[in-house]
Amino acid sequence: MHVFPDLARLERKYPKELVVIGVHSAKFENEKDSEAVREAILRHDLEHPVVNDAEFRIFRAYGARGWPHFTLIDPAGDIVGHASGEGNYEVFVSAIDATLKKFEGKINREPIKWALEKDKEKPSALRYPGKILATADRLYIADTKHHRVLVTDHAGKVLETVGGKEEGFKDGGFAEARFDEPQGMAIRGSVLYVCDRENHAIRAVDLASRRVSTVAGTGKQSYERAAGPARQTGINSPWDLALDGDRLFIAMAGAHQIWVMDLARNTVGPFSGTGRETLTDGPHDKANFSQPSGLSIGKGKLYVADSEVSGVRELDLDPKGKARTIVGTGLFDFGDKDGTGDAVRLQHVLAVLWHEGKLYVADAYNHKIKVCDPATREVKSFLGDGKRGREDGATPRFHEPSGLAAWGDRLFVADTNNHAVRVVNLKTREVSTLPIQ
After folding, report:
1. pTM above 0.90, yes or no
2. What's 344-360 look like in SS3?
3. How far is CA 69 from each of CA 52, 59, 198, 293, rounded to the nearest angstrom?
4. How many CB atoms within 10 Å of residue 49?
């Protein structure tokens, strides 16, 4: 995801000379489905064709050893060179300029126009909602690809719209403010904190004054991992929030760490994790995570949806404490298997929620909601049959659920690829779809 902006810049810089072809060589089983690839193209606003390389044939043919990998091919069909990782924009500008100079007069500069998947979409009230937060009488919905936050009542009536339908990075009143793919939220008093993921920032929505301000991050992606003043410290793809007094915990997916913002001192920095993408338990300064994407606090612990290891982690709130694994065994261990401990298999977990003594899990790529017992490490399927869909009732289906919230006997699910919020009656397990009014 982090290289998509650079690819878009290159496409804009060389509209008549450069053709970008994405090759999707999936790690997870769910991502091998061409419909899942199509949803990802829409979710990330891609305007170039993408090959579903489910069998890794192209991946191996071009010598790729990890993600992301790039190959530049000249007009004669020869390979100019390869690159991997992030931050290669200037490298490609230099290589493309040299190639254009070499082939001057031999390039067909007629632009290629692709039929875009987004042109086939029908308008909907929500577009890829990522996270959701519930209070006694309000729902806060991260309408992620509409780049806004909706405030509704529990019946779905929209009370406030924060931000606009186009992306941007701007503070100000609710109508003027702009976000870029908002995700997780936390609320304290009249202030709603929001992960502004693509802006690499934490925003504060003052519900009383109806204004938005930036409280952490610089607006640019940073690979630094040092603490500092919140507004002067760069952060990396914040995905979810959990509040403990003056401490705002941040699932820093891009840095593979859990960070914390001190709201009283206005500082931000790493809390747990070295930044190495793997699964390791132990003291906070030795532990490792892999794209943590969901947070929830319960019984004095911080629970983490550790997405790339398809795991659930438990953290001590004491800075001198430790991180432990409840479920998950490694980067390439995933599936759909209930059970206990290391025998359990999940697939790309995106949300956890502690509610009334239970830990609910959004098992996104299995299209299920599961329940986890942190004490026994037992996991059971709760809702969904493993197939994507949008069925309500007693036998519901979801499509990559990635956000959870609850109040009383109702569980609210951000059903991302269905562009919907689903409502679960926890007593009957009946599911309905929230009508956004």
Report:
1. no
2. CECCCEEEEEEECCEEE
3. 15, 9, 21, 24
4. 16
Structural element, H or E, at residue 60: helix 57-61
In this structure, what DSSP letter does residue 337 have?
A: B
Measured CA distances, 315 to 56, 157, 184, 236, 302 (Å):
36, 36, 19, 21, 5
Per DSSP bridges, beta strands 228-229 and 238-244 are: unpaired
Please give the Cα distance from 143 to 126 (Å, whole number).
6
Q: How many CB atoms lie within 10 A of CB 122?
A: 5
Q: Which residues contact 363 (CB under 8 A, 6 or more apart)?
A: 336, 346, 347, 348, 349, 369, 370, 384
Question: What SS3 state is found at 397?
Answer: coil
**Which residue reads 């990890």 in tokens?**
66
User: In 10 A of CB 401, how many CB atoms?
Assistant: 27
End-to-end CA distance of the chain: 32
30-40: per-residue pLDDT in tens?
Answer: 888 898 899 98
- Residues listed for the chain: 437
Report yes or no: 143 and 127 within 8 Å, Cβ to Cβ: yes
Query: pLDDT tens-digit profile of 46-86?
Result: 889 999 999 999 999 999 988 899 999 999 999 999 999 88
d(CA 190, CA 208): 6
How far does Cα 193 stand from its chain's mean position?
Answer: 16
Domains of the chain and CATH, by start: 4-120 (3.40.30.10), 132-433 (2.120.10.30)
For residue 244, the one-letter residue type is: D
At 91, list the tokens.
């490298």
